[in-house]
Amino acid sequence: MSRRRALAVVARAAVALGVPVWLAALGGCAGAGAAAGAGTGRDWITESDEPQARKRARTRLELAVGYFEQGQTTVALDEVKQAIQIDPTYAAAFNLRGLIYTQLRDLRLAEESFQQALRLDARDGDTWHNLGWMYCQDGRHAPAFDAFRRALEAPGYRSAARTWMALGVCQVRAGQPEPGERSLQRAFELDPGNPVVLYNLALLLHQRGDSERARFYIRRLNNSELANAESLWLGIKIENRLQNREAALQLGEQLKRRFPASREAGSYERGAFHE
């Protein structure tokens, strides 16, 4: 999967600190996503000497992952249900079912799905991560933090940057900006090009009044191909606060040229820098 496509999937589960995230640049959802970054299942699916039932279920799950990545959640859910019917011991299918129900905002069924996946495979970091993000979306911050910790402690877990990112966003949502910043900084160390991490760090620092440091992160993002209307507008507000009028003007011209119909372009035209 390409980085852009992977980040589009991440955006299905990630939410910025009070701001809609990356719908333009990444074409996803939840952005932060993102998930805040959700494991969708492809990493779990491996060829091996499997029983026939597992092979058939895996084929269904591969189809479900493809539909989910394309935003066809209802079709994806149908495929997952068939995978589970074929092989009710397939933890990955319950994990993806939980992710789909999270997307559909049916958090009760999402939690049931993730818990069943963990009963079948208690060491799967992707499931712990997805359960943590579901808890965070439901405002259950303490169990969310615990689930993220379990993901990070899972043997062989390969998506630590994604989980540190989600943990940081969740901590800020819970009114814990300092731990949130530390978690986002850890995510940045592991994945310095992640736009959700860059945006949320810049936003957090800007809101705290540390605009010099905020500028470091937002410039990294706005100098990349993943800049969008939200990131450009945040960059304008940061440069404006730092009284760097020339840089703010350049970003404003870019915002108007690239995203003329965006809400952010309208705010820029009104000079609404403090909204």
From TrEMBL:
Residues 1-24 form the signal peptide. Keywords: Signal, TPR repeat. It comes from the Bacteria. PROSITE patterns: PROKAR_LIPOPROTEIN (PS51257), TPR (PS50005). Pfam families: TPR_12 (PF13424), TPR_17 (PF13431). TPR repeats lie at residues 57-90, 91-124, 125-158, 161-194. Gene3D superfamilies: Tetratricopeptide repeat domain (1.25.40.10). The keyword Signal applies. SMART domains: TPR (SM00028). PANTHER family: CELL DIVISION CYCLE 16,23,27 (PTHR12558), CELL DIVISION CYCLE PROTEIN 27 HOMOLOG (PTHR12558:SF13). This is Type IV pilus biogenesis/stability protein PilW. It comes from Tepidimonas fonticaldi.
